[in-house]
Amino acid sequence: DGISNEYQPWQENTFPGLLGNVVAGRIANRLDFGGTNCITDAACASSFSAISMAVNELYLGDSDLVLAGGADTMNDILMHMCFSKTPALSKSGDCRPFSDKADGTLLGEGIAMFAFKRLEDAERDGDNIYALLKSVGSSSDGRSKSIYAPLSEGQSKAIIRAYERAGFGAESVEMVEAHGTGTKAGDAAEFGGLKIGYGLGEEQRQYLQSTYTKQWCALGSVKSQIGHSKATAGAAGLFKAVMSLHQGILPPTIKVDRPNPALNIDQTPFYLNTQTRPWIRSDDHPRRAGVSSFGFGGSNFHIALEEYLPNTQKVENNERKSSKARRLRSASHEIFLFSASTPQELLQKLQAEYLNELEIDNMAWLAQQSLTDFSVKHECRASVIGSNLTQIQSQIELLVAHLQKTPQKPLQTPNGIHYVNEPSSVDGKIALLFPGQGSQYVGMSQGISCIWEESRSAWDDSLTHLSHLGLKSDNELRNIPLHRVVFPVPAFDEEDQKDQQIYLTKTQWAQPAIGTCSLSIYRLLSKLGLDADMVAGHSYGEVTALHVAGAMDTKTFFQVSRKRGELMAQAAASTPGSMAAVKKNPTKLQELLKKWNEELGTDVVVANHNSPVQSVISGSTEDIE
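The chain above was modelled as a monomer; its predicted structure follows.
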């Protein structure tokens, strides 16, 4: 009776509330839109059929602004039963697109809507622009075996048509957001359609195996994270792709321990991206992505997207007012800065504003607010840093305890608490020291390059100025772009991961990689207003220092870095060499080396004067030993 009493009796709005098309009508009513309003049904591709219609409205000039997308909250008993009886649901309870453990999909729900305008109108009106939709390709499977059996050939038609209309080829598309249901039949058919759409005949396959263009395109599906939201599925994938272009990030597909071996993905342009990686591009074209969505009944759609790059061309004698939309804060850690005139004021501020006010949904906002309120002129200054609310809260509690007991003493802890109670000294000069070979590691500067465009721009420049790296004798490896050595495609076994580490230790990659990483960090520091009065470099780092000091431009910096690394690699190829750190004053070490070289017939020299008590010696491996 309690449940029955909660049901509403039949009323005036009951009948229209049962009709799906009324949803679009009420939105148009509330927003006072006068154009077309309707819902479309293409099963799991419904949102893309709506977007296709939206694009046509703009093409034809029937509308100047269109809202389109997907909405699906129909996860009721009947829907679960239908998918279960198909059967399409995962027995393991995980949606794993293109994985060797993929056993079906999971049902999700959601709403995703987009505002579409013609580019010239959006720029004229000063809109914030997230990405450019270049084309929509669509097709039907035609005559096929079963209503449940997707057809690769049918899906490929939509992909081919999308890039024909977009004005660029699939070879320039570096990310594909797949429909990716996680069912074995669906994944196999979709992957087959992608291979056809990307023109992979036998000749192309042989070419891919011999050049760095092998596996250039990141493949993934948001269904691994949110499940299959059915009519919203395409819009969810489109949202992910748009934000990827906007933020310059290749986002991960989760729950993939190993790709499905039946796909032979390593022999195609695609790789499963299971890590968050910066999306590096050269200046020959903007970042580009494709998004697929398919539905029961053979409805196929593929959308071609492109990064929006603002320009300063004039529109009707006025500068363009539009800009690239701002991005959400997405750092892995947050820093809080606090300041006050006295320790007591700082203590009261922390207790009143931060000690009990932190919540998960406002942590980033409070961090930003603390930076805004901070003043370097205050004598009492403190900072805490952490990756989650618990860390920040515990550090603030420790800081409060310190202020209550010993407010005059400075505090510095390994977990990121810093506190001083003295006037700020800003009169000292700033020197930057750039590192040399040996400091490299896979993924260096990956975090900051995913967050800050200034950092990522250094890697973009490396791709522009270094079309390929390596020696002619390297065969398979000689055409790998630098960023693909530092941010390699995800490896799924330990042997491949070890190989990735080994590649980066090769001098011809290590030196330009270290330089680009240093430049990536330096550009971020420069953006923050940190100007160096003097620069220096350790070993190879001298090249970076020369560039930062203005002695060579960006192009020369990359060319010198590459040439230096290649020459040293060639020298090492003829005579295997080694280096060793020695705790000895360089002058005294020189005397010992002269004696030992004469006695042993070796040829070892002092390579680095690291400090008054440490040097590095260099020579053939046999002589060093």
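The two ends are 88 Å apart (CA to CA).
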